[in-house]
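Our consortium's second objective concerns turning raw sequence data into structural hypotheses that experimental partners can test. To show how far this objective has progressed, the report includes one record in full. It was chosen at random from the queue rather than selected for favorable results. The single chain below, 291 residues long, was entered without modification.
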Amino acid sequence: MAFNDPFGVMTGYSVQNKSNSPTAYSGMLFYDQNGALGQFQGFNNATHEYRINNIAAGGSINFMIGSSSKFLVANNGTIGVGTTGTANLTVKANPSFTATRTVSTTAGSRTLTGVGTRVLTELTVGDRVTISGSTSAVFAITSDTVATIGNLGSTVSGAAMTVLPAMFRVQSPTGGLSFQVNDAGNISIGGALASGAPKVYITDTNRFAGTSTAASIANGNISIITNTPQAACAGGVLALGGFVGTVVSSFAGIRGAKENGTDGDLAGYMGLFTTDASGTFAERMRVTSAG
């Protein structure tokens, strides 16, 4: 059927069931080559549900773009986003790609500056980027040519940038990042993988060799972060506890906190806490920044 309708009022195919029965649908039936009913799809007149029901043996429902599966509901009920899987939900990260045009960075700065780049459409907070062999997370996006990333530690000019899209994200109503699994399988809860942003950051690779390294959010395989502004005794706390009767309580804890409120001073301490019989959770021992 060919027609010309610039207003989008007409369609190539229209169907209407005038029954007001709760089980009445306006829809279509699909039959296989043997005349057996394979699928129904239609609009319920009473509930306004749009139903797609594949009843064929081994049938599935597959949403594709450019012959590539984007959302697959398998016959056993499992859902694959960009892939297939045996779990109820399997999500596959999009492949890495080379960003449009080139970017530059300056040693000691977290600002990424592009020339002719499309940062707004090609990057998302929490993605990772590789520039001249170094990889860092994207912390903020300002415009099509400016973003904030981790400090790469070197000056790079006019370099190509590879984008490593994150695998899975959950956002707050305002668009903030609440939960993320990046392309490397690292997990962030409560914010982007940026200094001071996430509450919990989990990664599975050895973070450094030897007995010392530069202080960083990525020093540990599990990082617990507070978003309280810098101040003496401000820092993440790991509380260990359990039940007292029917009430849950903390019994002990470890705090890693800033020793002072001085900006630029990274000195921190480790405090060991226990709860006494009166129910007071208090520091009992401290290891200072000097050890």
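The partners drew two points from this record. Residues 61-91 form one domain. The two ends are 81 Å apart (CA to CA). Both points have been shared with the crystallography group to help prioritize constructs.
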